[in-house]
Amino acid sequence: MTKAKIGALCLARGTFDFEAARALYLERKAQIERDGSVEWFFYGDLVFEPEQAQQAAEYFEKAGVDAVMAVSGTFHLGHLALIVEKRLRRPLLLWGFNELPYNGGKIRLNSVCGVNLDASNLYKAGNDTYVCHIGDEPDPDWIRAVKMKAVLAGAHFGLAGYRAHGFFNLGAADADLYGKTGVLLDHYELSDLMRGAGEAGAGYGAGEVAEIFDCAAITPEQLEKVAALTRSMESFLLRNRLDALAVRCWPEFADTYGISPCAAMSLLAAKGYTLGCEGDVEGTLSMLACNAVADEPAFLADLSQVNLREDYALMWHCGVAACPLWDKKSARTLEPYFAGGRGVTADFVMKSGPVTFMRIDSARGVTRLFIQSGTAMEMDKDLKGTYCKVRFGKPAAQVLDTVTSRGVAHHVAMIYGDYAETMRKFARIMDFETIE
Questions:
Q1: Domains contained in the chain, CATH given
Q2: What is the pLDDT of residues 50-102, one digit of tens each?
Q3: Do 79 and 39 meet the contact criterion of CB atoms below 8 Å apart?
Q4: 286 CA to centre of own chain
């Protein structure tokens, strides 16, 4: 997965306590550099003059940074941030320090006013992608949002087959996708996923699959097909250097191969691969972006049931959730419950805890980001597939009305943890409309 590159510089002016700002900046710099999940590029010491800002912009351009953290060490000239923005056209975090105790009745940093100055200049220049932050530490949500952007921009993305039959709302325009996210989409045939047993060390053996799932409901032949498909699909992903793959998993797959790919996709998701079902390119893209910041794999879910009386929703899909999302209480099985007994899906209840939903979704020429948070609750295993019961942060009826009135597609990426603010900042730096 592509590692984000972030540049940082500290802006200052000699009429304020720039020595205190320098000490604060260098202390924060030492702390920030410990974050190995980002490749950091710090420019020099302090930037006072436009010529220095130009040199910093050239340094960041040569480094190929994905975004820049412009630290308002003290109040400063309005030229500085604008020069960097003009040269790079990259997302900017305008970070201001908390004000220090007064010294002799004088404001020492005036850092917040510097942030205000830069924000006003950028806004009036037509830039809507900057983010402002005041505090002793950099904004973790903005950093995570930059990671999401960087992963998409560097992604090699594949589509095997096409979108599922009749799912017109899941279609994606290749050139528009590239223009909005930087993602290059390559198309492959479904048969490409089924060829060969795979490279040594790829995928799973039948015995390994049987250790993870209770396989009593499927035949030995189906079990071997699941294992063989994991090997073939993983080899395909590695051979083509794909960061994510959307698969048209029905209706042809079961007829052609003998089983659906659901269980194999669940097993590979547990190994860190980003795989989306039903040929949903933007849904799989959403999963890839989520996987850049979440501790566990994303799940592509349907909003399958809304209980208005008890105010919850069932987030379900036919059996592709990654095994680590299991609640460790329900039976974890492989089931052939659809496609005439050839479904072979992963079946378990997903664990409880805070969750965030997100979908990159294009409609009417606009790219939107649907964002919602909630809590997955404990439930019995009453259904086939992989699923959880969720109570949203707002009434379920309101969430359903938002989704249907705004035409959001019927798949959303779900991750464990509260990342709603990260998603909002991701939408801002990508210049996506938000739907909440």
A1: 4-138 (3.40.50.10940), 152-435 (3.20.14)
A2: 999 999 999 999 999 999 999 999 999 999 999 999 999 999 999 999 999 99
A3: no
A4: 6
